[in-house]
From TrEMBL:
Role according to the record: Component of the exocyst complex involved in the docking of exocytic vesicles with fusion sites on the plasma membrane.
Stated family: Belongs to the SEC15 family.
Protein name as catalogued: Exocyst complex component
Exocyst complex component EXOC6/Sec15 N-terminal domain: residues covered: 52-221
Keyword NAD: no
Organismal lineage: Eukaryota, Metazoa, Chordata, Craniata, Vertebrata
């Protein structure tokens, strides 16, 4: 029962499930029906479901059939009406087709016209677009063409400006065009081309400046010379530096105008515009000779291109190289002044250009760079001048060189360069100048002394007298009172030498001009140089004249007179120096002239030379002596050579009467010279005769020879007694022969007993006879007695005399030995 109920319940559940599935199938989309059908196949009631499905289908078919039967008549009517509409539609289609054909036929021309209109509109649009594009491109092309034209005409700075506008303003508007890309690619190349061309212009400028530095420097130095001349005109006023400053300000203002206009100029002017100016025309400024626009343009171009530092380094490097070339002096510079002038002109030209660049550009060169170059230039210039000036032996050239150096220093000082070292070097050149002057004046003095006749200057009229007195400070009241013709005591070399000393002083003074030295320094320089002239140059010339072989006693006497007058003129030279330097001789540091010493030394040398010459002449006469030392009897008079010698001495000492006779220091000194010369001659003659008598070659002599010798000594004594030179007191001059006289008297009188008895006593008659001398002479006479056969008949007397001689000789030896002990 329960099983039946269970089966009935299952059957009901299955039926309900099948009903649900059928409803799902009816209501569900066919795409999602798969799971529903799977649930049917998964169950066990498949057959029953199929039966229910068939029943449901048949049920729906019956409903459809009922519905169709209900609406069938309306459907038939609709079909009938549709068939009617189809016929009308066919007619309408035919009419539309016909109308379309007619419309097509009628619209062909319109279509052709419309196509033509379309093409025209397209062309018009293209043309308008093209015009718009060309409007944008034409300024670019025009600017590029302008750039090329500027490049071709070498207007590089405007070209660079055009290039900037082209790059930053025009090309960005048309950057998508291919030709623009080509232009953009060419812009760096154009910049490099502008840099290279502008650098080429700069190189040309530098080369031209190097070649024309000489002219630039010459112009600058002419300006400095004009300024100095102007200063000299107003020299009574304090020296004002405003003139140079104003000149420099004018240069600076002119330079600023050049700076403001040159870089923007459309046409490049020449590098150096130099015209031949007449001497009467004003000297143009150095800045007026040079066109600096290439430097300015190149500087601006490199600045715009952010390469200013490169440009500055290149410019400074090249100018340093040029400076080294300029500062290298030519090897033959010292030969002419033009060599020095060209050297200075080049240096001045170089620094004038650099000074101009310094003041007209901002930072291309700076003061440190200029100072560095100037220090190098100063050291090299001073070294070159020291070397080359040392070769110069012409004082005129040295003086001209000094003036040129001063002008060179003043010129550069006007541009602000320190030049103290140049003036210090000029003080060194001053010493060299003094040496060259001394050499020149040495030749002048030699010519004067060689050409002088060493005779008093004759004067025939008042005009000549005043002329000589005007040349030489000489005053003599006695000479002025004498009638014409008359003579000055000195020869022509006195006024000539005096004037040449003054000329030397003037020459020294010329060198001190413009050296900015004080009066004391100038005075000291002149006095020192003049002292060298007197103590070294003139002294040597006088000494050489005095020591010449062919100089005569007359010349020596005249030299003594001349040097005496020159010595007295030294005080006038002192006054002359004081007048031209305005430094009083009482000043503490004033150097004194040593002229007095110079002329005294020369006079003493002349005196010594007189004594020496006299003695040499005496020796020459004595060489003519030819004594017969074996003569038995003397001659009737003195020997011929001695007579001639005495005659020579008389005529010689007569020359001393030309010495001035005024009773003053001069006269006293000249008289002493004559007396000393006479005494020296007599002593030398006495000594020489004694040596002649005692010389070893004379081994034997006779009494007769001794008596002849005595006659010669008596002639000498007669000469001494005659007073050949006034001023000797009593027998002073005869005392020169006292040794000979006593010796001869001893032998001729044979007064040995007196000699031996009184020997050593102050009152001895033969005090001047030396026992050694007496023994030598006695030995020569004893040898003669031994070998002489003339006295053979007087053999006993001869033997007695020989014994006496031996006895005397023995006693003389005893005296000599006792004297030595």
């Amino acid at each position: 029962m329960e099983r039946g109920k269970m089966a009935e319940l299952e059957s009901l559940e299955t039926a309900a499930e099948h009903e649900r599935i059928l409803r799902e199938i009816e209501s569900t989309d066919t795409a999602c029906i798969g799971p529903t059908l799977r649930s049917v196949y998964d169950g066990e009631e498949h057959g029953r479901f199929m039966e229910k499905l068939e029943a449901r289908i048949r049920n729906h078919d019956r409903e459809i059939e009922k519905m169709c039967n209900f609406h069938y008549q309306g459907f038939v009517d609709s079909i009938t009406e549709l068939l009617k509409v189809r016929g009308e539609a066919q007619k309408l289609k035919n009419q539309v087709t016909d109308t379309n054909r007619k419309l097509q036929n009628e619209g062909k021309e319109l279509i052709i016209a419309m196509e033509e209109l379309k093409q025209c509109r397209l062309q018009q649009r293209n043309i308008s677009a093209t015009v718009d594009k060309l409007t944008l491109c034409l300024p670019v092309l025009e600017m590029y063409s302008k750039l090329r034209e500027q490049m071709k005409s070498k207007r590089h700075y405007p070209a660079l400006k055009t290039l900037e506008h082209l790059e930053h303003t025009y090309l960005p508007q048309v950057s998508h065009y291919r030709f623009c890309k080509i232009m953009v690619d060419n812009i760096p190349k154009l910049r490099e081309e502008i840099k290279e061309v502008s650098m080429s212009d700069l190189k040309d400028f530098l080369e031209s400046i190097r070649k024309h530095s000489d002219k630039i420097g010459e112009t600058a130095m002419k300006q400095a010379q004009q300024q100095r001349n102007l200063d000299n005109i107003v020299s009574q006023h304090p020296r004002i530096s405003g003139g140079k400053k104003s000149k420099k300000e004018v240069c600076a203002s002119s330079d600023l105008e050049v700076k403001n206009t040159s870089p923007m100029s459309e046409q490049d002017s020449g590098i150096l515009d130099v015209e031949d100016e007449d001497e009467d025309e004003e000297v143009p400024g150095a800045q007026d000779l040079v066109d600096f626009s290439p430097v300015y343009r190149c500087l601006h171009i490199y600045s715009v291109l952010d390469a200013r530092e490169t440009f500055e380094n290149y410019y400074r490097k090249q100018r340093r190289k040029q400076a080294r070339l300029v500062l290298q002096p030519p090897s033959n510079m010292h030969e002419t002044l033009d060599g020095y002038r060209k050297y200075f002109n080049q240096i001045v030209g170089f620094f004038v250009v650099e000074d101009h660049i310094l003041h007209t550009t901002q930072g291309l060169v700076n003061r440190a760079y200029i100072d560095e170059l100037w220090e190098m230039a100063l050291s090299k210039t001073i070294a070159a001048l020291r070397t080359h000036s040392s070769y110069c032996s012409d004082p005129s050239l040295v003086l001209d060189l000094k003036n040129l150096i001063v002008l060179f220093a003043d010129t550069l000082q006007g541009y602000g360069f320190p030049v103290n070292q140049l003036f210090d070097m000029l003080l060194e050149i001053q010493d060299q100048y003094s040496e060259t002057l001394l050499k020149k004046w040495s030749g002048v003095f030699r010519n004067i002394l060689d050409s002088d006749n060493y005779s008093p200057i004759p004067v025939t009229n008042e005009e000549v007298y005043k002329k000589i007195v005007g040349q030489f400070p000489f005053q003599d009241a006695e000479l002025e009172k004498q009638p014409f013709p008359k003579k000055f005591p000195f020869s022509e070399f006195v006024p000539k030498v005096y004037n040449q000393i003054k000329e030397f002083i003037y020459a020294c003074l010329k060198f001190s001009e413009d050296l900015h030295l004080s009066s004391t320094e100038v005075d000291d320089m002149i006095r020192k140089s003049t002292n060298l002239l007197l103590t070294r140059t003139l002294s040597n010339c006088l000494q050489n004249v005095i020591k010449r072989k062919n100089v005569g006693l007359t010349e020596l006497v005249q030299i003594i007179i001349n040097t005496t007058h020159l010595e007295k003129s030294c005080k006038f030279l002192e006054e002359f120096i004081t007048n031209i330097t305005n430094v009083l001789p009482e000043t503490v540091h004033t150097t004194k002239l040593y002229g007095t010493t110079t002329f005294k030394d020369a006079r003493h040398a002349a005196e010594e030379e007189i004594y020496t010459n006299l003695n040499q002449k005496i020796d020459q006469f004595l060489q003519l002596a030819d004594y017969d030392w074996m003569a038995m009897e003397p001659g009737s008079r003195a020997s011929d050579y001695l007579v001639d010698l005495i005659g020579f001495l008389r005529s010689t000492f007569a020359v001393f009467t030309h010495l001035p006779g005024d009773v003053d220091v001069h006269s006293t000194m000249s008289g002493k010279v004559a007396q000393t010369a006479c005494m020296s001659a007599c002593k030398h003659l006495s000594t020489s005769l004694m040596q002649l008598l005692l010389e070893a070659e004379v081994r034997q002599l006779t009494l007769g020879a001794l008596q002849q010798f005595n006659l010669d000594v008596e002639e000498c004594e007669q000469f001494a007694r005659s007073g050949p030179v006034p001023g000797f007191q009593g027998d002073t001059l005869q005392l020169a022969f006292i040794d000979l006289r006593q010796l001869l008297d001893l032998f001729i009188q044979w007064d040995w007993s007196t000699y031996l008895a009184d020997y050593g006593q102050p009152t001895c008659k033969y005090l001047r006879v030396n026992p050694t001398t007496a023994l030598i002479l006695l030995e020569k006479m004893r040898d003669t007695s031994r070998k002489n056969n003339v006295f053979a008949q007087f053999r006993k007397n001869e033997r007695d005399k020989q014994k006496l001689i031996d006895t005397v000789a023995k006693q003389l030896r005893s005296l000599i030995n006792s004297h030595h002990s």
